[in-house]
TrEMBL record:
<dbReference type="InterPro" id="IPR051323">
    <property type="entry name" value="AtsK-like"/>
</dbReference>
<keyword id="KW-0272">Extracellular matrix</keyword>
<comment type="similarity">
    <text>Belongs to the TfdA dioxygenase family.</text>
</comment>
<dbReference type="GO" id="GO:0005737">
    <property type="term" value="C:cytoplasm"/>
</dbReference>
<dbReference type="GO" id="GO:0016706">
    <property type="term" value="F:2-oxoglutarate-dependent dioxygenase activity"/>
</dbReference>
<dbReference type="GO" id="GO:0005604">
    <property type="term" value="C:basement membrane"/>
</dbReference>
<dbReference type="InterPro" id="IPR003819">
    <property type="entry name" value="TauD/TfdA-like"/>
</dbReference>
<protein>
    <submittedName>
        <fullName>TauD-domain-containing protein</fullName>
    </submittedName>
</protein>
<keyword id="KW-0560">Oxidoreductase</keyword>
<keyword id="KW-0223">Dioxygenase</keyword>
<dbReference type="GO" id="GO:0046872">
    <property type="term" value="F:metal ion binding"/>
</dbReference>
<dbReference type="Pfam" id="PF02668">
    <property type="entry name" value="TauD"/>
</dbReference>
<dbReference type="InterPro" id="IPR013015">
    <property type="entry name" value="Laminin_IV_B"/>
</dbReference>
<keyword id="KW-0408">Iron</keyword>
<keyword id="KW-0479">Metal-binding</keyword>
<feature type="domain" description="Laminin IV type B">
    <location>
        <begin position="223"/>
        <end position="359"/>
    </location>
</feature>
<dbReference type="InterPro" id="IPR042098">
    <property type="entry name" value="TauD-like_sf"/>
</dbReference>
Amino acid sequence: MSATTTVTSTPAGAIQIKAEEPSQDYKYAHLLPVFPKDEHYPPLEPFEHVDPGHRALQHPNPRQFLANATVSQLTPPAGEEIRGVNLATLTPDEKDELALEVARRKVLVLRGQEDFIERGPDFWLEWGRYFGRLHIHPTSGHPEGYPHLHLVYRDKNSTFNYERSDRTIATTWHSDVSYEHQPPGLTALFLVSAPETGGDTVFTSQVTTLKRLSPEFVAYLKTLKASHSAHEQAEYSRAGNRGGVVRREPVVNEHPVIRKHPVTGEEALYVNRQFTRRIVGYKREESDAILNFLYDHIDRSIDSQVRARWEPYTVVLWDNRVTAHSAILDFTDQNAVRHGIRITPQAERPIPANPDLKL
Ligand SMILES: O=C(O)CCC(=O)C(=O)O
Ligand SMILES: [Fe+2]
C-alpha cells in the first residue's frame, strides 16, 4: 500500500499538493488533499443526534457482530483488535452493535478492511452517515469533490498537518474538533500510505484518566465548564505562506469539563491541550493552573493509553467523546508518505456528568 512515488508540492513548501508526474501512478492520487480557495460554509446548525449504540442495548447479544471474529484486547483501559469482520457489509443491526462496541472499548483496530477501503469515497460517506451528520473540517485538506472527508497527509515536502520544527515533542493530544457545538462521536481513520514503521496513532481513555483522580477533586471538576476554540487552528491555516484555507468562521463553544456518554453512561474528562482554552468564569492564572494540571496528567498517563499500529488495510474507529489521541511523529526523518482519511460523524452536544451544571 505504500506510495512508492514522490508527491510534489509547491515551492512555498506546504500544501498545494497536486499529483504531478511521476505521481500519476500513485494509486490514491485522487485522494490527495486539495484546499480550494473559493469554498465557504455557513455556521453549523444544531441537529438532533440519536446514537445508534442505544439500539444495540436492546439486542439479545449486543456483540453478535463479532460472533465469527477474532478479538483481542489491547490494553485494559481501551482498545480491541478485530480480525474477521468486514465493515463494508455490516447490516444496520450490526452497525448499531459496532457503535456500542466502540463506545465500550473506545478504540477498535480493525484489520483486513481491504473491501471497505477499496470501495472509495462515495461509499465511505454513505457508511459514515449512518452514525451521524458528517462534519466538514474548517481547515484541513480533502479529496477533490469530497469536503466531508478530512485528510492527514505528510511527505518530505509537505508538512501541513505535522510541523515539528519549533517543538521538542510533537505529540498533540486532542479530541477532534472539540470546539464544535456538537463534536464527533464514533470516528473512523485509515491510512492508504504509511511509513514502513512508525506513525502509529496513540489514544488515551479519558474515562481512565478521570478515574485516577480523587473523588473530591472529580466532584469539584464536575462544577466546571471550559471553552474550546477553533481560532488558533484557523489562524495557523491563514498564516504565512502556508496556503491554507478557512472554510467556516472559527467558533468557540463551552463544554462541561466532565461529560457523560449518552449510551454507556461513563464519565470522561473532556479537556485537551489543542482546543481547550479557559475554565469559564475563572481568571487566567486560575484557569491555567487547573487546565495545565489536567493536561500534564493526560500527557503522563501511559497507563490509560493504547497505540494503534497501521498494518496495511487497517481501519481504526474511536469514540471521540471519551478519548483523546495524537499522531506519533517518529517517522518524519524518513522519506515516507503518510496519507490518511477520516470519516467524522458528529454526535450530541456534550452531556454534563453533573445534571445541575447549566450550559
Ligand atoms: O494522523 C494521525 O495518526 C491522527 C490524525 C488525527 O488526529 C485525526 O485525523 O483526527
Ligand atoms: Fe485527531
